[in-house]
Structures are given as structure tokens and as C-alpha cells.
């Protein structure tokens, strides 16, 4: 048991416990100007003004003391949407996109997700692990202390299971907390090109039971999009996933407004993600059912598309979260600071709203808000010491890494 006292920090944190913050609450943070906090055995034990925290100490003496020298301190970033388990980059395809080929055109030409499927299927477990571990190390450097990783480059039962086992190993062998999501419904694989219904059956009858049995994924996600899975197919896959005990996520209305956001509301999914083309009706359905919007502005940036309507979502009472969408195709972005900066400069979130979106609301989107997402007693002592006085430094110093140090479970890890 080690007891660590951190003092003289400018502490900014959401302070709502485990619940997500929506509407006007999203921009409300607790702020301690000359704040300090106590870390007991890797967890926050107290936070506030020096006098209050000293009271908590009673007659115990900290094993170590750290002077934060007036730097801003925020909770560690939670990245609730990544595809950070793959075996090769796709830079050539990025050049094709710059020449004007659309994402769906590249998908039809056998590129896109399907080229990652080929490289993941032919990689060994160790190769897949090594490649992904390097990605995770980079996200940690940029302040991500909890990360969700989706499968979805296997698209057959065996390879999806293999990916989830690699994701599980990443959680055990890297400093970060890793939350696994099963996304066998990421694309229709080549062998089912002429029989997509056959693949929906494989998902429902074979993959979901096999993955549930191994207990290695908490969430089930689906790419509900024109040319991928229809709303009706998505509903059938998600219904079966729910029967097997998965919590639900939906890649919804990224390219076209198919009604994915409304379907996420109807299915009581935890989150709907992307939402670049989400309609007013879809946003209303999400607000009604408390579905969190996981927005991925680095993907919109990388695809040169308009950003999601974050302001409307906040005004309508949808809790908004932010994520990188780190993947080899549409968005090779490892940096939550960059996402934060895009959210403020491009989607017009206030820095306070962006902070809640990239910590507490992000944690809630992946079922981790009891353990992560704020500097509150009982949560993991995951925090960032910033090279700046306020969280706005991420937008002020856009493209930089205004982070002095990254702490996970009370240990300095980057
Ligand atoms: Zn995604």
C-alpha cells in the first residue's frame, strides 16, 4: 500500500460520479485552483483544497509527495472508439482518397476494411499483438489511459476470436485499461459477397454464441451503413447480441442518414457513433433513450467531411463523448489532444464540454464510469499533468502534445 500526495495543481474534473453529463451539465466542471489529491494504492482517495485533503490523511503520513507547480491536472483520457488491433497500415489507400476516390468506392474495389481483413487473417497472433501494442504505446503517450478496442478485421469466427484474445492480452500486458468490443459486423467478408444474409446468419448463429461463451467481449457493435448492414439487418444482429448478454453499440449515420441513430435509440444501445449524417429525429430518439453520442471529429477531418452536429446534440440533451476512431483506413489518429482540439475549433464545444466528452462521458460509453473518467475518490488514479494552466491548452496548442506526464493507477507511465 502506497500513499501519494499530489499538491499545488489546478485540478479540472467532471464531478458527477458515474453518470454521464448531458445538456448544460456537460460543460460544468469542478475546479480546484490550488488543489491537491491523495492516491491510495492506485486509486484516488481524496481531492480538493489542501485543508480538506489533509483532513482525510488523519494521522497517516504519505509515502511520497509531488509538487504539481500550478500545472493543470485532468483525468486521463478515455478513448471509447478504436479499431486499434490490426496488422498493417493503408497509406496507399489514403493517397487514393486524396485523389478523389470515395470511401465506399474503395470498399467496392476490395480495399478498405477488406484489405485489413486479409492482413489480419494472415498475421500470426504475435505479429498482431506487436503491431497493436506499438499503437497503444503511442495513444498512451498522448494521454489515453483507458481505451476501447473493437475486433472486426477477422470476419470469420476463428479470426474474430483470435483478435479478441489479442485484445485481451493487450489489456493484460500494457499499462492501459482495455475494453473489448466484438465487431464481426464491421463489413461483409469477400466469401459472402453474393450472400450477405448468409453472413448475418453466421453472426447470429455462430459468432455471437462462440464469443459469448468465451466471455471476451463486453459490447457488440455493428456498421449500419448503405452497402454494409441495413437497419433491418443491424436490428436482427443486435437483438441476438442482447440475448447473449452483450451491451450494444452502433456505427450509425456516418455516410448516409439511414436511421441508424433512431434504431440505436429504439434498441436502447449504450452509444451511437460517428453520426455525421444523423437526422433531427435520430438525435431526438437518442436523447429520449439516453444513448450517448460518440463523435469522431478526426475521422470527419480525415475524410474531409463536415463535422457531426455536436452543438445540436448537446442542446437536445444527448450526452456527447469524443474518440479517435484509430484505424488503418478512414482515420489513422492516435491522439486524443488532436480530437479535443477539433471538437473545440471545429464542432464548437467549449473546452469544458470537450473535457467531459473525452473523460467521463467517454468512460460511460464503454461501461467504465464507475472506475474512470473523473478525479473522484474510489476511481482509478489515472490523470494527466498538462503543460498549461487550463484544458483549453489542447486547442490553444493545436497539433502539439501539451502534456507533461501521464499517470496510470498512480504511476507515471509517459
Ligand atoms: Zn469505427
Show the helix and strand layout.
Blueprint: E1 3-13, E2 30-40, E3 43-49, H1 50-57, E4 64-67, E5 72-75, E6 77-79, H2 91-98, H3 103-108, H4 113-122, H5 125-141, E7 144-150, H6 157-173, E8 177-185, H7 196-214, E9 219-224, H8 231-243, E10 247-252, H9 260-266, E11 271-274, H10 280-289, E12 292-295, H11 297-302, H12 310-315, E13 320-322, H13 336-345, H14 351-358, H15 360-365, E14 383-386, H16 393-396, E15 403-408, E16 411-412
Parallel strand pairs: 1-4, 1-5, 6-7, 7-8, 8-9, 9-10, 10-11, 11-12, 12-13
Antiparallel strand pairs: 1-2, 2-3, 5-14, 14-15, 15-16
Helix pairs in contact: 5-6, 7-8, 9-10, 13-14
Bound molecules: zinc ion.
What does the model show?
The protein is an alpha/beta fold and 414 residues long. The chain folds into two domains: 3-75 and 374-412, Urease, subunit C, domain 1, CATH 2.30.40; 78-365, Metal-dependent hydrolases (TIM Barrel), CATH 3.20.20. The chain has 16 helices and 16 strands. It has helices at residues 50-57, 91-98, 103-108, 113-122, 125-141, 157-173, 196-214, 231-243, 260-266, 280-289, 297-302, 310-315, 336-345, 351-358, 360-365, 393-396, and strands at residues 3-13, 30-40, 43-49, 64-67, 72-75, 77-79, 144-150, 177-185, 219-224, 247-252, 271-274, 292-295, 320-322, 383-386, 403-408, 411-412. Strands 1, 2, 3, 4, 5, 14, 15 and 16 form an eight-stranded mixed sheet that branches. The chain has an eight-stranded parallel sheet with strand order 6-7-8-9-10-11-12-13. α9 links the parallel β10 and β11 (271-274). The mean pLDDT is 95. Residues 81, 83, 251, 325 line the site of zinc ion.
Amino acid at each position: 500500500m502506497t500513499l501519494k500526495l499530489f499538491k499545488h495543481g489546478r485540478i479540472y474534473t467532471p464531478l458527477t460520479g458515474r453518470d454521464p453529463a448531458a445538456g448544460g451539465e456537460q460543460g460544468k466542471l469542478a475546479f480546484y485552483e490550488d488543489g491537491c489529491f491523495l492516491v491510495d494504492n492506485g486509486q484516488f482517495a481524496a481531492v480538493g483544497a489542501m485543508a480538506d485533503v489533509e483532513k482525510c490523511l488523519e494521522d497517516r503520513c504519505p509515502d511520497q509527495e509531488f509538487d504539481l507547480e500550478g500545472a493543470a491536472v485532468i483525468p486521463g483520457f478515455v478513448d471509447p472508439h478504436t479499431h486499434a488491433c490490426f496488422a498493417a497500415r493503408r497509406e496507399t489507400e489514403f493517397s487514393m482518397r486524396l485523389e478523389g476516390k470515395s470511401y465506399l468506392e474503395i470498399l467496392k474495389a476490395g480495399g478498405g476494411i477488406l484489405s485489413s481483413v486479409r492482413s489480419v487473417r494472415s498475421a500470426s497472433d504475435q505479429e498482431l499483438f506487436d503491431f497493436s501494442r506499438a499503437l497503444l504505446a503511442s495513444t498512451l503517450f498522448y494521454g489515453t489511459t483507458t481505451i476501447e478496442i473493437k475486433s472486426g478485421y477477422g470476419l470469420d469466427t476463428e479470426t474474430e476470436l483470435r483478435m479478441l484474445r489479442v485484445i485481451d492480452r493487450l489489456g493484460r500486458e500494457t499499462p492501459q485499461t482495455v475494453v473489448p468490443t466484438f465487431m464481426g459486423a464491421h463489413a461483409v467478408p469477400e466469401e459472402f459477397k453474393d450472400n450477405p444474409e448468409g453472413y448475418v446468419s453466421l453472426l447470429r448463429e455462430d459468432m455471437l454464441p462462440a464469443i459469448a461463451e468465451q466471455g471476451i467481449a463486453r459490447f457488440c457493435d455493428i456498421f449500419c451503413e448503405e452497402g454494409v448492414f441495413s437497419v433491418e439487418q443491424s436490428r436482427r444482429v443486435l437483438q441476438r447480441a442482447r440475448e447473449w448478454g452483450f451491451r450494444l453499440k452502433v456505427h450509425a449515420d456516418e455516410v448516409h442518414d439511414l436511421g441508424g441513430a433512431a434504431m440505436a435509440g429504439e434498441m436502447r444501445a449504450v452509444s451511437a457513433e460517428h453520426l455525421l449524417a444523423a437526422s433531427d429525429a435520430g438525435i431526438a430518439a437518442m436523447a429520449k433513450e439516453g444513448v450517448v453520442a460518440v463523435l469522431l471529429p478526426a475521422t470527419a477531418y480525415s475524410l474531409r467531411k463536415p463535422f457531426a452536429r455536436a452543438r445540436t446534440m448537446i442542446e437536445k440533451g444527448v450526452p456527447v463523448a469524443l474518440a479517435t476512431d484509430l484505424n488503418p483506413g478512414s482515420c489513422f489518429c492516435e491522439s486524443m489532444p488532436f480530437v479535443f482540439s477539433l471538437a473545440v475549433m471545429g464542432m464548437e464545444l467549449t473546452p469544458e464540454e470537450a473535457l467531459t466528452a473525452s473523460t467521463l462521458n467517454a468512460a460511460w460509453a464503454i461501461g467504465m464510469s464507475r472506475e474512470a473518467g473523473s478525479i473522484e475518490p474510489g476511481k482509478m488514479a489515472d490523470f494527466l499533468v498538462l503543460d498549461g494552466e487550463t484544458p483549453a491548452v489542447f486547442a490553444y496548442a493545436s497539433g502539439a502534445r501539451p502534456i507533461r506526464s501521464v499517470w496510470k493507477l498512480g504511476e507515471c507511465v509517459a
